[in-house]
Amino acid sequence: MKHIISLLFIFLSFHLFSQTQQFAFAGKNGIFVHLGINIPNGRETDYFNIERKTENGEWQAIAKIKFPVNIENFKRDYNIYKKLFPYINTSVNIDDLYGKLSRSNTVRDTLVARDINLMALRLAAGNVFYDQNIDKYVLYQYRVTEFKIDGSHTQMISDIENYPGISSYSPIKVLLFSRTDSTDYIKWRSVNGENPYWVALYHYDNKNAVFDDTPISHYSVNDTVYYFTEIKKSKFKQYFIIPFDYYGNQGKPSEIAYLQKIKPAVNYFSNISAKRSDDRLQINLKWELKNIDDIKEIDILRSDDFNGQYKKISTVTNQTNSFTDIAVEPDRIYYYQLSALLTFSNQRVKTIRFHGFGFEKQAPVPPYIDVFSNNEKAIGFKLSGSGERFLRGVRVYRKMQNTNLAPQLISDLIELKADTAIFVDTTSLEGGFMYEYYAKSENTSHLESDFSQPVIVQSMSKIYFVPVTGLSDIVYNNSEIHLFWDDIKSEIPQIVGYRLYRKKEPGEWENLLKPDSLFVLNRYVDKGLEPGEYEYKICPLDFMFREGAGSVIKVNIQQKSRFTGPDLVLTATDKGIQIKPSKIAIKNVKAYKIFKYQRGKDPKFIKELPVSTESYIDKKVKKGKLYFYFIILTDNQGKESLPGREAGLRY
After folding, report:
1. One domain for residues 35 and 156
2. How far, in whole angstroms, is CA 616 from its chain's centroid?
3. Taking the model in full, what pTM does it have?
């Protein structure tokens, strides 16, 4: 676990605290990458090279951006990108702008600064890149290299970003609406004054929302007026407005404004309204009365459809100027009309139709999330609601365990059926790592619950095995083989141990351990062996006991020799430790091998010398350290002696 925490800390430190800039922004279908202020038209900047990587991936080149070579290509690209922003209807002199861009170094030059504000134009000019070949909810990072005509280049790396984007603009509130004989008149503003970059106006025609393809330009004042002059006097008009940010991300639509060429019963009613309650699920109706003595009673009528049948839900006296409708469901529009019974004529006077809707003010209870399947390809979850009414669905979040990162959204809104749903996570999971999964409920009033209790899951995804490295051997007493290798499980936390195999030529591989066991050390001693040629294979095992490719070494045990290595004398010199074997009187000896070790560690071969060499100086020693040495002889037939008596010296 310590290794996991250390690796995660290094990984997160590298990725989250490197020098990055915010120039990648989420859109509806991808990510917009700003390439700086320069235009890649060959005046100062030649071209931009764009690379992309995922959170755990490698940089990959995805685009090379240059200014269009001719006006036809510029027009073609502009017309393509203009379709991304259908609510913008702005006339542009393309020929004139192309010429200005060709003569400008940057988009801030006075020639083009006022004309290049549209995103479609900046995309066509090669100043912004729109990456649409990516997956939803996956974190991406971009590296942009600007190559200049003088041979120099600069580079910048973006903050991480994912799509789709969510507009941060608050809802638009319609302030005033009316209809004259020739014009519909609408006035609106943003609720908190943060005006969106663009707005689109829609109206309902035969219950279908229709986009009014009329120029609506960027505005920056608090109150905005829109006039729509083509109307059919015989119809009602129902309008609503949708805000958009600079990158085309849609905000929350406004309430519907109803424009009616009907005069209300102005002699009896004024200031009629239907508003949702601020603290509970209900709609509060209010009105003011004039000529009260002429009114006997007032019926309150309600319908689910603007042009539908209005049914009486209550009757009040002429002393009443309000009514609370509690028989409502959240986020449904209800249409109202007041009908006054006149005392002097026994006839009724009806007001204009007005509407209201209610919000559920209580956030839902967190859902319950549990694992029902976990395999190499995916993790399956069962989501359960709390039995509440008016739930829209559930969203699932994920984070890697033991990190300070907030849980990341990994699902769309999942609809519950019979208060349950299934979600399968197939996104980029790393095998062996622990993940925390959370869920949130959302009701029809768009209120979210708190996070659910987490469920902790270990990913069973396959890991990429690294072969064992540094495999070596030493033969002792012509009957023992000592194997050593690098402990790669200290570098790869998902690897938990090793499986060891042995084969004596010409036999078959045999497991040196029990089939269901693993070996956790990085050295192994195989004893009681007969002379012959052996092969050993060391295979890494992951947390699921899945076996990676093995590393193989061949070892030869010779017939036992009848001679023993010589004694030796150790002397400390200013260059190191001098090793001098005693006189070797055995015939047919051609060389001797020197081995060295420290207490608690395995001997290592350091040098083979001709038998005529009287001494050798080991320079790889440190002051104050204790070292032990012994010698093995080799005869003319390649047979080795038993190790000689060891000697030790503190340098």
Report:
1. yes
2. 61
3. 0.41
By the 10 Å C-beta count (0-12 exposed, 13-18 middle, 19+ buried), 606 is classed as middle
Angstrom distance (rounded) from CA 178 to CA 261: 8
Q: Give the residue-averaged pLDDT of 99-126.
A: 83
CATH of the domain at 341: 2.60.40.10
* Coil, helix or strand at residue 111: coil
- H or E segment at 25? strand 24-26
Tally Cβ neighbours within 10 Å of residue 169: 21
Per the listing, tokens 């050798």 go with 616
The reply to whether 293 and 220 lie within a common domain is no
Give the integer Cα–Cα distance in Å for 460 and 373. Answer: 11
- The answer on pLDDT for 595 being more than 90 is yes
- Which tens digits make up the pLDDT trace of 36-46? 899 999 899 99
Collect contacts of 316-319 with beta carbons under 8 A, ≥24 apart: 318/289, 318/292, 318/293, 319/292
* Mean pLDDT, rounded, of the chain: 80
Using DSSP's 3-state secondary structure scheme, residue 280 falls into coil
Domain ranges, residue 221: 172-258
pLDDT cut 70: percent of the chain above it:
80
CA distance 568 to 578: 10
Element (H, E) at 14: helix 2-16
Which pair of structure tokens corresponds to residue 619? 């320079």
Same domain, 47 and 119: yes
Comparing C-alpha atoms, which of 343, 367, 439 is closest to residue 399?
439
Cβ neighbours for 141, distance < 8 A, ≥ 6 positions apart: 20, 24, 52, 53, 54, 55, 157, 158, 159, 160, 161
CA distance 2 to 434: 14
CATH of the domain at 183: 2.60.40
How many CB atoms sit inside 10 A of residue 457's CB? 19
Give the amino acid at 629. Answer: Y
**∠ at Cα 126 (121, 127), nearest 5°?**
80
Comparing 505 with 14, which gets the higher pLDDT?
A: 505
Spacing of C-alpha 107 from chain mean position = 32
- Mean pLDDT in residue range 623-646: 88
